[in-house]
Design goal:
264 residues; pyruvate-formate lyase- activating enzyme; two-stranded antiparallel sheet; globular
Length: 264
C-alpha cells in the first residue's frame, strides 16, 4: 500500500529513485493519492483472504506531509474496521500518533519495523538528511512494544565503506535489544541502478570524496553492491542476535491462529 509518490526524507541511498518506478523529482514533489482511502474501503470487504497489508516499501508512510494529510492514519482506520493485519515500515516516530489504532489492529496482528542504518549521529545526518534521528525511532519502538505491537528493525542498506563496520552493526543490535526489538532483518549491501546510482555517487563524492572512486572501481554498474565485510558482519550479526534473544526474521501473521484454546 503506497499512499504517496515520492518521499521527503531524502535518504541518499533510496532505490525508489530508480527509473523503473517512474517517479520523477522523487525528493521535491510529493504526490498524494487522495482517493486511496475510498479505494481501500471499497476493496478490503471483498477480499476473502486476510493477508497482511504492508506499507513503507516505496516511500515512508510517516514522512513529513503525513502530519497534514493524515492519510496513513485514515488508512489504518479502514484496515482496523475490516479486521486486517498490518506491517508498517518507517523511519519516523510520527507512528506514535497512531498507536491507538495500531493497538486495535494488534488484536489480530500489527508490526512496526524501523529502518536503522547507523547510530552515528553525524553520519546519519549525511545519509538520511531529513529523517527523524535513530534515537527517536528507538524510543518509539519501546513505546509500541509496551502496547503489544510487534516491533523490530530493518538493518538495511549497509553501505560499503560507510556503515559496514562491525562496530556499527554491533551498536545497532545493542540499541535494538535495549529498546525491545523482537527481530532484526539485515542485508549487508546496497542496490544501485541508473539514476539512483548517479544520485548516490554524486552525494558520496560531495560528502566523502575519497569513497566515490572506490565505489566506481569495485562495483561499476552492478546492481547489487555488497560489503566486502559481509562474511564477518553476518557472523557477528547472527551471534549477537542470538545472545540478545532477537530473531533474524519477522513473526508472520497466521490466519489460523485465533489465540483460543482447544476445546479438547
Amino acid at each position: 500500500m503506497n499512499l504517496y509518490r515520492g518521499c521527503s526524507h531524502r535518504c541518499i541511498y533510496c532505490d525508489s529513485r530508480s527509473e523503473c518506478y517512474g517517479i520523477d523529482n522523487f525528493d521535491g514533489e510529493i504526490l498524494v493519492k487522495e482517493n486511496a482511502i475510498d479505494l481501500l474501503g471499497e476493496r478490503l470487504p471483498r477480499l476473502r483472504i486476510r493477508g497482511t497489508i504492508g506499507t513503507g516499501s516505496m516511500n515512508d508512510p510517516y514522512q513529513h506531509i503525513e502530519k497534514k494529510t493524515c492519510l496513513t492514519r485514515r488508512a489504518l482506520e479502514v484496515i482496523a474496521s475490516n479486521h486486517f493485519p498490518v506491517h508498517v515500515i518507517t523511519k519516523s516516530d510520527l507512528v506514535l500518533r497512531d498507536i491507538d489504532i495500531l493497538e486495535r489492529i494488534a488484536r489480530i496482528y500489527a508490526a512496526v519495523t524501523f529502518t536503522v542504518t547507523t547510530v552515528n549521529e553525524s553520519l546519519e545526518v549525511s545519509i538520511e538528511p531529513c529523517s527523524p534521528p535513530a534515537a527517536a525511532r528507538f524510543e518509539a519502538m519501546k513505546l509500541l512494544s509496551e502496547r503489544g505491537i510487534h516491533v523490530g528493525i530493518t538493518l538495511m542498506p549497509v553501505l560499503p565503506y560507510l556503515t559496514d563496520s562491525v562496530e556499527n552493526i554491533s551498536s545497532i543490535i545493542d540499541e535494538a535489544a535495549r529498546f525491545g526489538a523482537e527481530y532484526i532483518i539485515a542485508s549487508f549491501g546496497v542496490t544501485l541502478r541508473d539514476r539512483q546510482r548517479d544520485y548516490f555517487l554524486e552525494k558520496v563524492e560531495n560528502m566523502f570524496p575519497e569513497l566515490a572512486g572506490k565505489y566506481r572501481q569495485q562495483f561499476g554498474s552492478s546492481y547489487l553492491c555488497g560489503s566486502r565485510n559481509t562474511p564477518q558482519l553476518e557472523a557477528v550479526f547472527k551471534e549477537k542476535c542470538l545472545e540478545e534473544g532477537i530473531s533474524t526474521s519477522i513473526p508472520v501473521y497466521d490466519p489460523l491462529d485465533t489465540g483460543q484454546l482447544s476445546l479438547f
